[in-house]
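User: Hello! My lab partner asked me to get a predicted holo structure for this protein. The small molecule is pyridoxal-5'-phosphate, SMILES included with the sequence. Please write out the structure tokens.
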Amino acid sequence: MSQYWTDLVHKLDPYIPGEQPQDQQYVKLNTNENPYPPSPEAIQALDSYNKHQLKLYPDPESSRLREALAQRFDVQKENVFVGNGSDEVLAHSFQAFFKQTQPLLFPDLSYSFYPVYCGLYEIESKKIPLNDDFIINTKDFDIDNGGIIIPNPNAPTSMLIPLSDIDKLCKQSSSVVIIDEAYIDFGGESAIPLTKKYDNLLVIQTFSKSRSLAGLRLGYAIGHKDLIEGLNRVKDSFNSYPIDSLAQTAAVSSIEDDDYFQQTCQKIIQTREQSCEQLSQLGFKVLPSAANFIFVSHESRGALELYTELKQAGVLVRYFNKPRIDNYLRITIGTEQEMQKLIITLSEILQPGKIS
Ligand SMILES: *Cc1c(COP(=O)(O)O)cnc(C)c1O
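Assistant: Hello! Below are the structure tokens for the protein in complex with pyridoxal-5'-phosphate.
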């Protein structure tokens, strides 16, 4: 607290990121990072990058990167916006589209950064409750609004909304609809093709999860060129060079290496299905996941207690002390070995001494 803070800063309720322990070696299954390294092509691009070039500002328009993304998603460069992590793309989108007279709508259980941006940009919002099975009913969003944002698959529930529902949502809405597809590559169908049909749809994705580049900080939005122009107006009123030269270089190579991308996504999906099976056998209820994480609760043991015991045993998962989900754990899908360590540790916690 300081007398020098503005009223707004006093009122902020900032996002709290998952732990990134700098000391101990944990099996780290708490922040939905990818357990596999980035594409070897991306690593090669960084290795051969001419560091003398760092004296120059990067391309403010990230042209090569936007071109590569446009090609991949069969859209034009004018339909692509890139930012310093999709969190930045989200922030600019909130500022560009959501400060309206009507409230912004999002699910009561969703990405906890959304209310934070509402606080920062003084945007009114209304939370739409998921049903008791954590299902998002898009019809519930058919009320007066100044915008809609939904993660698909949803975080932290991991559950997917069918594309046909998103189609209806865009049709019924006269405001901007944002689909946050941070996890779409792990089993969902992207809404990007619908951006050609609806000029109010913006789809946001990230390099942090399916492309193993969380440390590079890169995200992007795809939508009608007028939406992209709105984002560019905000970006160029904030920071003209959000994507550094190294990030632009590595990201292009990552996009071009589709084989590696497909392989690592498939591996994670396989490991996820295997882990779901094993966790069910240990008495966990596992929500159907289309993401690189699962959302689980145990039939007899509390989530906070399990989180604590796992941490003591060197396995880090995510616990949210929030209404409705305070008996769930969010577990990122790691390598097969990491998941085995999780399963063995949990068996030990649940049935001490009975480990095979
Ligand atoms: C991880 C995540 C993001 C942020 O990703 P970055 O690109 O790393 O900023 C955005 N939305 C959701 C739902 C996420 O889980």
